[in-house]
Write a structure and sequence with these properties.
The protein is an alpha+beta fold. It has two domains: 3-107, no CATH class; 127-238, Chitinase A, domain 3. Helices cover 43% and strands 18% of the residues. It contains seven helices and seven strands. It has helices at 3-21, 28-31, 42-61, 68-80, 91-125, 173-176, 189-195, and strands at residues 130-132, 138-143, 155-164, 169-172, 180-183, 203-208, 229-238. Strands 1, 2, 3, 4, 5, 6 and 7 form a seven-stranded antiparallel beta sheet that branches. Helix 1 runs antiparallel to helix 3 and helix 1 crosses helix 5. The two termini are 41 Å apart. The model is unreliable at 1-7 and 12-32 (pLDDT under 50).
């Protein structure tokens, strides 16, 4: 994990704390785990949704290091107007402890993703017909189109289906039923390289190492840091 990532995660924690602390104090019965709110009004439903989303985001961003029971206790004390069980003078040091734990969890997770991605690429490289370029891009020709090959500055229309090494779909124009158009030089490096090798009418299976995709940053919620990506790409036309 980068410092900025950890900082964002802890920023979410701070935001959630401020949101809770600024709410009017609730009765002891309302804060009890044994007395759930009926969620009959829209305000109750919106409040529940906010809590659900905040907690889910915190758990995702802190990678399991957050003690959710202790967090819930802090929420209950803030909502009830009770004194904090942990002093303000300890806050900065404890946030640094949590940040270090999140960074360690991220490093462990990244290592596992890197190893799994390499194993996936090594296995794919052994499949019949798979070729590898100097950059590390792997491709398998499913249909060999005989049309023109796009140049770097061309705009193309494609159909594609993208999955992670786990098989999870993260994006698919095929599933949307709508081809995607973009400039060859405005996509990830693995795509830019492959498209210039494909003739119109071609359909290739690509396996793209992280350094030719989104690297250590990842992209959005589905493509994490250091992810190896697989695409089936059909080049429909050069516009």
């Amino acid at each position: 994990m980068t410092d900025s990532f950890a900082g964002r995660a802890l920023g979410v924690i701070a935001t959630a704390w401020v949101l809770v602390a600024c709410q009017p104090a609730q009765s002891e019965a309302a804060s009890s785990n044994d007395n759930k709110t009926a969620l009959t009004t829209e305000i109750e439903q919106a409040s529940y949704r906010l809590g659900y989303d905040q907690a889910g985001g915190l758990l995702d961003q802190t990678l399991g290091t957050l003690d959710i029971q202790a967090f819930a206790q802090g929420v209950a004390d803030a909502a009830a107007g009770n004194d904090a069980a942990v002093s303000e003078s300890e806050r900065q040091r404890l946030m640094q402890v949590l940040q270090s734990a999140v960074q360690a969890a991220q490093a462990s997770q990244s290592s596992a993703v890197i190893d799994a991605g390499k194993a996936f690429r090594d296995e794919f490289a052994q499949r019949e017909g798979v070729q590898q370029t100097e950059s590390g891009l792997l491709y398998q020709i499913m249909v060999a189109g005989d049309g023109a090959k796009p140049a770097l500055t061309d705009t193309v229309s494609t159909h594609y289906h993208g999955t992670l090494a786990t098989g999870e779909v993260f994006d698919s124009s095929v599933e949307r039923g709508q081809p995607a158009s973009f400039a060859v030089n405005q996509v990830i490096r693995g795509w830019t390289e492959a498209l210039q090798l494909m003739g119109v009418g071609s359909k290739w299976r690509l396996v793209i190492p992280p350094e030719l995709a989104y690297g250590e940053r990842g992209a959005g919620g589905k493509i994490g840091p250091h992810a190896t990506l697989m695409f089936e790409v059909e080049l429909l036309e050069i516009k």
